[in-house]
Amino acid sequence: MKLLEKLVSIRAAASDESNLAEFIKEYVTSNSSDWKVQPQIVSGNGFQDCVILVFGEPRTAIYAHMDSIGFSTGYDKELIKVGGTRLIDGIQLVGSDSQGEIETELMLIDSGDGETSIQYVLDREIDRGTLLTFKPDFRETDEYIQSPYMDNRLGVWNALRVAETLENGAIVFSTYEEHGGNSVGFCANYLLKAYGVRQALISDITWVTHGVGHDGGVAVSMRDQGLPRRSYLNKIIGLARDSGVKFQLEVESAGGSDGGVLQKSDLPIDWCFIGAAEDNVHTPDEKVFKSDIAGMVALYQYLMEHL
User: Fold this and answer.
1) Which tens digit of pLDDT belongs to each residue from 1-56?
2) What is the Cα–Cα distance from 92 to 2, expressed in whole angstroms?
3) Which sign, positive or negative, has the C-alpha torsion 289, 294, 298, 301?
4) Domain region containing 117
5) Largest Cα–Cα distance in the chain?
6) CA-CA-CA-CA torsion sign (222, 228, 234, 240)
7) Could you tell me if 115 and 83 lie in one domain?
């Protein structure tokens, strides 16, 4: 879990993913000599801060978004949410601006008219527009991992683990998912035109709900706000049953992912969200069980071989 702990520690709020992208490229360059296949790394002009790994002759692409939720600083110590951050008084935040490193905390202020403002607590003003993220606090027990940004550094970690044995496939490390989505369209278009890739798996983290629980196996999402094409979904569920990996089926009415962006595009790309479930969503205390993490890696390995 040292790699996961390192991924969590890298600041990469939506729109500011370049540091994590560089880490991933350096990690792949340093470690891929021990992998089954050494991938081609696609990045740079035309791909913004995204990183695509291409292995052999890909049929299916894994999408894992790199970005996280957080805050932008506004005027007069105001904080503005980046993505769907849950507001909890006293959350510790970190960042940096022209005056150096920052460590502060969030304060909720009741305005008296039923509205609440969000401010940071610091003896100086932070540069306008500075991005702040949760202070890293990685906790591990025999049963679970608890940390900020399991969503979606765990999805990135899963993709890097699957990369170790992947022979044919692609992995897209995407941007902006937590704040509207953006980059999967041009990445999917590239893979479609260059390699004919029309299948996608979304390596992301879902929520513990009354129907999806900890230690129940990796969740295969039949729907959220988006609705995968049923024949593709049925194929994945059939393969999941054949794999012998413990999994649970998710059916939700809300929530979105890179899959939703693919569905709204004009590209003929099938997709399915598959990920471990977490509690304390979008807080510094996101909690995922290790058994579900292991199942996530195992199911992705099986699907990438058989899809």
Assistant:
1) 999 999 999 999 999 999 999 999 999 999 999 999 999 999 999 999 999 999 99
2) 22
3) positive
4) 71-134
5) 61
6) negative
7) yes
Q: Would you say 225 and 231 are in contact if contact means Cβ atoms under 8 Å apart?
A: no
The token duo for 253 is 């009415």
DSSP letters of 105-121? EEEEEE-SSS-EEEEEE
The DSSP code for 216 is S
Q: Structurally, how many domains does the chain consist of? A: 2
- Kindly give the pairing relationship between strand 60-65 and strand 199-203: parallel
For β-strands 70-73 and 79-82, DSSP reports them as: antiparallel
201 and 175 housed in the same domain: yes
pTM of the model: 0.97
Give the dihedral sign, CA 24/25/27/31: positive
**Residue with the two structure tokens 């170790």:** 164
Give the rounded distance of the alpha carbon of 74 from its chain centre: 26
Instruction: Copy the structure tokens of residue 266.
Output: 């004009």
81 lies in the same domain as 43: no
Could you give the CA distance from residue 278 to residue 149 in angstroms, rounded to a whole number? 11
CA 92 to chain centre: 21
Angle at 184 between CA 178 and CA 185, to 5 degrees: 125
Whether 145 and 4 have beta carbons less than 8 Å apart is answered as: yes
One domain for residues 94 and 220: no
DSSP-assigned letter for residue 178: G
Domain at 120, CATH number:
2.40.30.40
According to the model, what pLDDT value does residue 106 have? Answer: 97
C-alpha angle with apex 302: 298 to 303, nearest 5 degrees? Answer: 115
Q: What value does the mean pLDDT of the chain take?
A: 96
Q: Which amino acid is at 34?
A: D
Q: Which among 114, 134, 154 is the end of a domain?
A: 134
